[in-house]
Amino acid sequence: MADERYFGDREDYQSMEELHRAAMEKEEQIPEEGNERGPWWMYVIIVLTLAFGFFYMGRYLGEISDRPHVLFAEPEPAELEEEEFDPMQVGSRIYTRLCQSCHQQDGSGVEGAFPPLDGSDWVIGDPQRPVNIVLHGFEGEIARNGVTYNALMPGFSRLVSDEDVAAVVTYIRNSFGNEAPEVAPEEVAEIRDATQDRTSPWTEDELNEFIEER
């Protein structure tokens, strides 16, 4: 007697059961979401990307270390040879920058305005004169070799150091046919200190009086 729970023939029931079992087996073979395998070309791209990344880091980033990398570390300063101070060379540059426009490249000056430096007793004589003039300037008439000069020369005490003043005075005392002893920065420092309160250019009488008192 057929089971009353089934409304069809037994053969139909068996066919349905087989179909149901086959469907269940197929469903078990379907991978769960998130576990599916990607396409093969995607794995190739990942491998190539990793390979390129390791190559780039090894080529351009150097070794892995806790020490600063050479590309980002400050280079050690090169040991520079100390250059010997040459007053003539330094003085020439300062003369070109501050003096040449008035006293000319050859030291010949400008007639009626700026006296010549070649052969001048004020240049090759007592070094206090040219040092004071470079520091504080000069104004008023001055006669040299029958020619009267009258033009204002500014002072450069705020623009040049003691070493620079000594260099440019040494330069003019040994250029343009002149020859006189070198001036030391210590001499300039002493004169600068003695005239630190001066605020106006020297006149001839004032400069002569200052030198006589020293």
Q: How does this structure look, described?
A:
By secondary structure, the protein is mainly alpha-helical. The chain has a domain at 87-213: Cytochrome Bc1 Complex, Chain D, domain 2. 48% of the residues lie in helices and 5% in strands. It contains eight helices and four strands, in the order αααααββββααα. It has helices at 10-29, 40-60, 87-103, 121-124, 128-136, 162-173, 185-194, 204-213; strands at 137-138, 142-144, 147-149, 153-154. The strands form two sheets. A two-stranded antiparallel ribbon has the order 1-4. A two-stranded antiparallel ribbon has the order 2-3. β2 and β3 (147-149) form a beta hairpin. α3 packs across α6 (162-173). The longest helix is centred in the first third of the chain and has 21 residues, at 40-60. It starts with 9 loop residues before the first helix and ends with a helix.
CATH topology of the domain at 87-213: Cytochrome Bc1 Complex, Chain D, domain 2
Strand content: under 5%
CATH architecture of the domain at 87-213: Orthogonal Bundle
Structural class by SSE content: mainly alpha
Extract low-pLDDT stretches. Answer: none
Distance between the termini: 150 Å
How would you describe this structure in keywords?
214 residues, mainly alpha, Cytochrome Bc1 Complex, Chain D, domain 2, two-stranded antiparallel ribbon, 8 helices, 4 strands, 48% helix, 5% strand, rod-shaped
